[in-house]
Design goal:
Layout (H helix, E strand, L loop, with lengths): L18 E5 L2 E4 L4 E4 L2 H4 L8 H13 L11 H13 L6 E5 L2 H18 L7 E6 L7 H6 L16 E4 L11 H19 L4 E6 L16 H11 L3 E6 L22 E4 L11 E5 L1 H9 L14 H16 L2 H22 L3 E7 L2 E6 L12 H11 L2 E2 L1 E2 L2 E3 L2 E3 L1 E4 L7 H21 L1
Parallel strand pairs: 3-13, 5-6, 5-7, 7-8, 8-9
Antiparallel strand pairs: 1-2, 2-3, 4-10, 9-10, 11-12, 12-17, 14-17, 15-16
Helix pairs in contact: 2-9, 3-9, 6-7, 10-12, 11-12
Bound molecules: pyridoxal-5'-phosphate (PLP).
Length: 439
Amino acid sequence: MTDTDFSLTASPGRTLPVATHASGMRIWDHDGAEWIDACGGAMVMSLGHCHPRLVEAAQKQLEKLTFTYRFSFSNEPMIELASLIREIAPMDRGWAFFNSSGSESVESAIHLALLYWQHTGHPGKTELISRYPSFHGSTLGALGLSGSRWRQGFEHVLDDNPVAQAPNADIRSGLSPEQELAFGLQQIEDAIIARGPENVAAVFLEPISGASTAAVVPPDGYLEGVRTLCDQYNVLMICDETVTGFGRTGTWWAVDHWAVQPDMISFAKGVTSGVTPFSGLAISGTIADVFAAAPEGFPFGHTYSGNPVGCAVAAEVIRTIRDDGLLENSVEMGKRLHQGLVEIADRSAHIGQVRGRGLLQGLELVTDRESLEPLAGSSYRLAGLARDRHMMIYSCPTPLGDRVIEAVMLAPPLTIGAQDVDEIVERLSGAVEELDRTS
Ligand SMILES: Cc1ncc(COP(=O)(O)O)c(C=O)c1O
């Protein structure tokens, strides 16, 4: 191996460990050091690294068929995966469309939403409403939906979509759950009315937030309320489950914690547990029917849409989650992890909230528990202190009004056992103690 890394992933001045192999939640580097991957990189490793069933599924598919172009061929893994998505998706008569990244699937959802309204006689419905804080991807359409610090530098080319504040995102609000619910719904309704319902195509939201705000769970009734508003104003409800798709929060989808049927759900990250780049959309039958009847079908997408290797692996992820009871494990181990985090928080002055569902858990970092003001720079600092203990956690500093919220997130594999949960908690506890001592 050469000594210099010319890939732009290596930020100047930062030397990253070079990973050589991995298994479950552990990665080894070329110096032989072992690392705990407590956040699956970026919430990707749903079944951990190199799960044998996924490696085998990929290998088998690689020997049979590696690529089809969607205008020329369908393929067996894609047909099978679409039917598995139909089984697990909350919407009636769900269809599916597959891409290679979360951003691509959000772009496809935008294409589908706008074309749906054109095909059904409402070409003026072109406005998209999203929330802040949020993150929906780095391509310009998806970034335009994002209420995120990553907009900086690109604002002049981005749409101004994030106009509704997400409920429960501001732990300093002092609002009761009922007030947060009313506030969150009012934000959506005001946005639809301000833009004119006749102009609005869709509301995009992360049902349980991911990279932007570290696992914020909405108040009960919120998603149902958004669904009602979308029906009332004839607007599509599109849920971005890039982070939460396929079991991360203890149910197949985060929306399953509430009785909600979105019009579309985008998914990515954990759906192939990092074996291949892959993503997709679950689409309600009502929308899919329109494209099934359109002369051109749905002509947008990307060169690798419906890639057979990705489809074979994603189908195996669904079968493994079912066979091994991993939704149940996510609930049980999620409770153990949450409890461990609560105990860390009880000992620390700098944790303002522990939140999340299943194996997506977040900690918000504050100067003190009375003011709950963000502890500036602490999410990167805590991630650094965890890294000193050879553990990766995900840092999520996010602007909200004139503050930058500081939070970190954990997302270990759904396959995790009690001992590994305890090891994560122990290493994090040491990192938080050092943050406390040095803040
Ligand atoms: C909710 C959400 N949507 C979309 C994306 C974009 O996914 P990708 O980086 O695979 O394009 C992300 C990435 O973090 C995400 O968290």
